[in-house]
Amino acid sequence: MIHIEPELLARVNTWLTPAFDKATQDHIKHLIGTNPSELKESFYKNLEFGTGGMRGVMGIGTNRINKYTLGKNTQGLSDYMHKVFPNEDLKVAIAFDCRHNSKSLAKIVADVFSANNIHVYLFEDLRPTPELSFALKHLNCHCGIVLTASHNPPEYNGYKVYWQDGGQLVPPQDAEIIETINNLDYSEIKFTANDNLIEYIGKEVDDVFINASVKNGSFNTPQDAKDGLNVVFTSLHGTSIMTIPETFKRAGYNNVHIVEEQREPNGDFPTVKSPNPEEPEALKMALDLADTVDGDIVIGTDPDSDRVGIAVRDLDNKLVLLNGNQTMVMMTHFLLEQWKSNAKINGKEFVGSTIVSTPMMSVLTNAYNVECKIGLTGFKWIAKMINDFPELDFIGGGEESFGFMVGDFVRDKDAVTSALLACEIAAQAKAKGSSFYKELIQLYVAHGLYKERLISITKKGIEGAKEIKQMMIDARENPLQQVNGSNVIRIEDYQLSTSKNMVTNTVTAIEVPKSNVLIYYTEDGSKIALRPSGTEPKIKFYISVNTTLDSIDYFIETEATLETKIDAILKDMNLI
What we know:
Layout: H1 6-14, H2 22-34, H3 36-43, E1 49-50, E2 53-57, H4 67-84, E3 91-96, H5 102-115, E4 119-123, H6 129-138, E5 143-147, E6 156-163, H7 173-182, E7 198-201, H8 203-217, H9 223-227, E8 231-234, H10 244-251, E9 256-258, H11 284-293, E10 297-301, E11 308-313, E12 319-321, H12 324-341, E13 349-354, H13 360-366, E14 371-375, H14 379-388, E15 393-399, E16 403-406, H15 415-431, H16 436-447, E17 449-458, H17 461-477, E18 482-483, E19 486-493, E20 498-501, E21 506-509, E22 518-522, E23 527-532, E24 538-547, H18 555-572
Parallel strand pairs: 3-4, 3-5, 4-7, 8-9, 8-10, 13-14, 13-15
Antiparallel strand pairs: 1-2, 2-6, 5-6, 10-11, 11-12, 15-16, 17-24, 18-19, 19-20, 19-22, 20-21, 22-23, 23-24
């Protein structure tokens, strides 16, 4: 007889009631008899909203993405919307990516909304996440949903929730909606669609979105400069193939080579180990093609087209993948220069970034008398800044995880417009005899050479979650006094909302929402952040170091010195 804990058994038994279909019940009975460990993984907790919504492995159970967990979320959202928008004709927009079951799950979500007397705009086929954010506002919707698991492995899917402003859920709505969902019984989900309330959308929204992307991502680059830029692009089997090639075309970039083997959307991502443009391996086919056609810039996007990876030629003319910090520093600088040249900077502008991104963002914006607002990880916090400071003009914003947002017409990281912006930067630089990479180094000469590295440690399953939790507890209870021989002078604990000066022993409050993040600052200018991922079974360590750079001639040796320093920090922290 297999023993199942009482609490787990209660969860499982709920799914053996008539509220669940026979196939679901039969599968659960099979797990009870044959695979108790999988049963436990599937039911030991409820999937939770993280920095990017709800994301998890597809399958049966409360800890899985399936018809019932998404149905319950959607029913709770429907109830909440009727409560906070009384007597309004409610509207939602729904998009989905290339993943297995995304299209069918999107239809289930649409059915539940429609059954609750909510008008649904459902994209007819896969579309990029930034287009959903745009469409939501364009169609005056109250809410939006994207079915996606971003760059996670093929067995994952997810459910991102957007609010009226086009940004993802933030306080207080997130907690109120979660409470509404948790108070629901599965038997209360209305699955029977009102097909009269489901309206399919497609090309008409694409046209408006692509035109808006061209408008926001173009900056008076001469046509001969565009013609002189040799671009290689890969969608990594994802949604960006629906919009980015046409965006390039309408913007005047005709010298574009697409990686044909990765053009077709495919939830198995057959040509890559991981469809994550943060990883050089994912862009190997694009880099190989660029070497064949002598490409100047390589651009790759993740499955839902919110992250963008960019590779450019270095001082030795070799293609190198920039990290997210380098990309956003370049994009921010370019935008600041555009605003400055048009006399649009008057002290009432701001740029958005995050607590784990490069400190160079603040140094850069200060040089233009523009504020850099720093928020928690995730673009929902940058979108919230735009709402919270309507008296200020938003220039752009980025975070280290390969995301950037140009202006506020999309309220999430947007690989479509960012890809175009990258081409504008590269084309203008090449036309004046420079390059994307040389322009980056000139920024280091002007503002200091900042070098970052991210270390991710994966801990899967129940035991993995416990390990990650314990690692953060240990870091708080036994904080580092030194890092690589340099004294820790400040510790920011975002879970306790405190910033402690280790020299004066004084504590000040951190005025942002609580988050499980710990950041060390050392007297030599190093920064080390610890953060469990909100959407993946990982704990992440973000390392940042910096020094002055006298000229481009010293770049290679100075960069090598900083890389060696990061290695020493990681070794000192037993991370390598």
